[in-house]
Write a structure and sequence with these properties.
Layout lengths: L35 H7 L64 E8 L14 H15 L4 E13 L10 E3 L2 H13 L3 E6 L6 H6 L2 H4 L4 E5 L18 E2 H18 L4 E7 L5 E2 L10 E7 L5 H12 L7 E6 L13 H5 L7 E4 L1
Parallel strand pairs: 1-2, 1-11, 2-4, 4-5, 5-7, 6-8, 7-9, 9-10, 10-11
Antiparallel strand pairs: 2-3
Length: 357
Amino acid sequence: MAHSTPGMPATDRASAGQDALRHGDGGGRSGTPPPTRRGMLSVAAAAGIGLLAGCGEESAGSPSGAGPQGSGKAKRSPSATPSKSSPSPTPKPRPELPRGGRELSRYRLVGYCGLPGAAALGRLGIGDLDDQVRQIEKTARAYAADREPQPVLELLATVANSSAGPDGTYRSRTSPDTIRRFHDAAKRHRALLLLNIQPGRASVLGEVKALREWLVHPDVGIALDPEWEMGPGEVPGDTYGHTSGKELTDVARYLSEIIAEHDLPQKPLVFHQVAVSVVSEQSALRPQPGVVVIKSADGIGSPGMKRDTWRQLVKDQPEGVRTGFKLFYEEDTEGSRLMTPEEVLALRPRPDYVMFE
């Protein structure tokens, strides 16, 4: 399996969508070869993707007011007035994570990513959903080590496309019905649901805000794929996309506001990083209250190559940012093998999130 740089994407994997991008290698950012394999995988308008309807936000109000005052001939002192107040209601329990508590540090997150009807985009799109979650549970136990296992479903909620689409954003949104089905499965199995965003030319924060109706739940977080975040004139699959520490901070701040408003437990914000150039001005990344920011090393290759990519990406990591590690069932094993749980857990710092594609 040839790689020009450690951990860079492999080529020649078949596309799973209806409009798969078919082109040769083009010029990548700063001389980096374009992610041809990923271009073949994710820039398709994959089956099952529809446009999100407007995401509403439920609000609840509790009417209050004083009852009518009685009138009598004799004037009573306030101390003699009978109390008509109702018993104090039992305090409502604070929302917790799917397996208890409000802090993620007690858990090792382990999950699959994918999209229904698009097997090439990840294992989560294959077969029966409940069977897949049970397999995630089994896999999570092998990586738990000194923590409790926490299964994760990472669903592609916004997918980069090779065509501009009617709004020129080069992205499609997964339908609310699909997100609801995955959220229901997450609740059945006490799993976390991460909504993955490949924004194309759309605003990253805008895509996050469009998912607000799901983010008010204590078991839903966000995963960002900035290699699919395109600038003006850029097309998904032709070059690596990019984000910045400031933009990641803006997303973290928005999630923190939701957490504070709804008294939610900690919420994960994962960003997958395939190369150092994908995140600029990393020092500007500022973790926000209630948000656990996780940088997930997203490189393909042999165990040695993946370790090299890991060392490059965790070097000079901002304080407060945790780590994740991505494994590929197919690409990592082309001419090599999948890393073992023991090898992954030997990485330093030890990954908080292990994700499989």
